[in-house]
Write a structure and sequence with these properties.
The protein has 485 residues and is mostly helical. It is built from 22 helices and no strands.
Amino acid sequence: MAAFQVDDDFLDMPETASLMGAEDRENEPRPLHKDHKQRTLVLVLLVGINLLNYLDRYTVSGVLPELKDHTKSGFDKDLSDSQGGLLMTAFVVSYMIVSPIFGYLGDRYNRKNLIVVGMLMWSLFTVGGSFAQNYTQLLIGRGLVGTGEAAYAVIAPTIIADLYEPHIRTKMLSIFYVAIPVGAALGFIVGGQVAEAFGSWRWALRVSPPLGILLSVVLFFFTHDPPRGATEGHGSKNEASGLKAFYDDFKAVMSVPTFFWSTAGFTAVTFTSGALAQWAPTYVYRQSQFLDVQYTSAQSSLFFGGVTVITGVTGTMAGSYISKYLESKTPAHDSYVCGVGLLASVVFMGMAIPLAAYAMGAFWGLTLLGEFALCLNWGPVAAITLYVIKPRRRNTAEAVSILVTHLFGDAASPYLVGVISDTLKDSYGYNDGDSLMLALFIPVVVSLLGGFAFLRSGKFVGKDRAAASAVSPQTTFKLINDPLD
């Protein structure tokens, strides 16, 4: 079992220090700046779990053509496009509904333990969904998976914020968020390849849970929850409780203009990425059937996954470095990187989508540029949320961000694109490739609005960041368990 730990605030009290003998002082937590390996262990575990979460989330996209065909899915009938899109929507709806609960708990209780509980739930529900015998059971199973992931997604960024000082935090958050596009790409690839290798989509859903359990065990037994706000001179938990306390926290974070506008911008990002992640492999597969080069479902997922890996890593890290370069020039550097990146993605994706019907090579080239531009925002937008909100409300801010961005973002977009595609096919006679092409222009328009929202947030960021800041970081706390504890 994990060792019992004395409260960090108690250890930092001068009265406590004066009562501690020489032997006790030898066992004091080591200064933060000396614990690079310890911090790296915690970061690696959180990145690994994030990678697995997104791998699983987009595995369904990789096997969607199989799920839609009843002869391959084992269900009693084929699925429509709207039913395929609803699988992602069900996941996101439960994810965003449960997120505020974990945000409230994360501001008040041990965050490490909350993540472990969430990961165990996630593993159980993911495996359970692989045994679904009909569409309804699979839909419920994917919805339950979202409740487990909510614990991790809300809390992990705030732990990273408490491990790393502000001047390197964006870089560390970018490393953390690289796991999103890479995990999503692996989901496309693993989903398609594992399903093809084992002859069933069910095995694709059984890849990530064992690894998730392993990482959770290491996290539980070998790490500690760092004090909140330790790297910025804050050091207190949110002691308020009850519905009124949650309402007060919600009102406080939404009253920060930078948070409001950056959340609006990121809603457009989730709307677009959710729609593309769910439908792009299927769209490529359908359009290729009308060209000389005809992809299989597994090939479409593999190629799109490869593009996503490349753009995810390079785009996310480039966003971090560009932001760092602009930091000395303007306090709105993160807002500008996010806004310009999203507007650039509108141009490239707007050209790429129709070209898939005529020139697949041009489609891949423009998609590469569009996804690169879209991924520029992952690190900077996470940093914005963390530095304009005071530490004792950061978990709540993360939860509110998840609720809003997914409620109006990828909870709606996969299903909406599917419904419009079905309508264009059934009512207007479009083939299934062209109907999906026209439906995919909706995320492009939403991204245009999101880009301007990010630019708007830059007007307020200097003032809001100063209001949330403090000095004198705390440097004496433990990150991992000592072997003899």
